[in-house]
Design a protein that fits this description.
Elements (H helix, E strand, L loop, with lengths): L7 E5 L5 E5 L8 E4 L6 H27 L8 H17 L2
Antiparallel strand pairs: 1-2, 2-3
Helix pairs in contact: 1-2
Length: 94
């Protein structure tokens, strides 16, 4: 199953509930995240920003990892960073 295509947008419904939806479509196509007591609008904006930039960030990290030859990494610190980047890519692709 695929997620809702990006870009996403955040809006507040007439009843005060916060929801995320496909940009340019009405709230009926969205997911309600909470009411006034639940996630605040800054949380919703963060979720939308993360979702809308996920593919770009993943592509940038993949390009960095592809450009670096692991055997040229001279220190354990760089090797650890490279390993963490690969782990992040793997998790983001799931």
């Amino acid at each position: 199953m695929e997620h809702t295509p990006i870009p996403w947008a955040a809006s507040t419904h007439d009843d005060g509930s916060l929801y995320i939806h496909k940009a340019g479509q009405d709230w009926g196509d969205g997911v309600i995240i909470g009411t006034d007591d639940a996630p605040k609008d800054t949380d919703v904006a963060f979720i939308v920003r993360a979702a809308n930039n996920h593919a770009k960030l993943l592509a940038a990290l993949e390009a960095v990892v592809a450009a670096v030859v692991p055997t040229t990494l001279g220190t354990n610190e760089l090797s650890m960073i490279f390993r963490r980047a690969r782990e992040a890519i793997e998790k983001a692709q799931k």
